[in-house]
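Thread title: Can someone regenerate the structure for this chain?

I was given the following input by a collaborator and told the matching structure tokens would be attached. They weren't. Posting the sequence so someone can regenerate them.
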Amino acid sequence: MRTSRPARVGQYTALLAYLVFLAFPFLWLVSTAFKPPRELGSLHPTWIPSDPTLANFRQAFDEQPLLHAALNSLLAALAAAVIAVLIATPMAYVVARRRTRLARAVTGWVVVSQAFPFVLLIIPLFLVLKNLRLINSVPGLVLVYVVWALPFALWMLAGYVRAVPAELEEAAAVDGAGRVRTLVSVTAPLLAPCIVATGLFAFITAWNEFFFALVLLKTPEKQTLPVVLTHFIGAEGVADLGPLAAAAFLATLPSLVVFAIIQRRITGGMLTGAVKS
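Best answer:
Regenerated them for you:
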């Protein structure tokens, strides 16, 4: 059935309103990052700075070690994404292909675990890391990020594995391939776009994470970028708005760049991975 013209207009209007809602904070952040101090304190703010300046960026780099903090965030996010995907892929294959009570219990636990708040997890995780002597270390933070990203990665990949035709694996078994060979040579290539999407999710989640990094990292040279951004806010809660906006704008760029590079590969891989009967 064809959608009527008023319905299409309503759909496009709702979509446009949603895009504006999503884009407004980022656009305002960019505008603030390039405004001089006198415009930041204006009672009548404007979208486009009348006198754009890079002084906020220079001040942000002078006041805080942004590059070092960004490197810490990058290392933690990349390591967490790679490890989570490497662990979740074979686990998802077993959960999706083994129709047992244990597999259903694992799936149910994964869904329930996503409802746990950060505060509930931080104390046991802190005690575990303390016993492992990983407090105030990037490897300890990576371990926490893997634990946090693994349930969703497992749940996400298990759904994609179920969508892969079982006939392909049966044909590989007839040719003499074992479970591991089937996973590596048959299933994994078809899951490549999904694995990339899951890794991207884990990377962005770890890159933007703040609470765990704030609690576990105390040494300034080991802190991640989201934690360093809080240093632009004084003890009385007054923010150094210009440098804070500049630093926050730079902190959002890696996520946008990574997604822009990978999103075409994701959609292209999903199309080329389709199986014709």
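The two ends are 27 Å apart (CA to CA).
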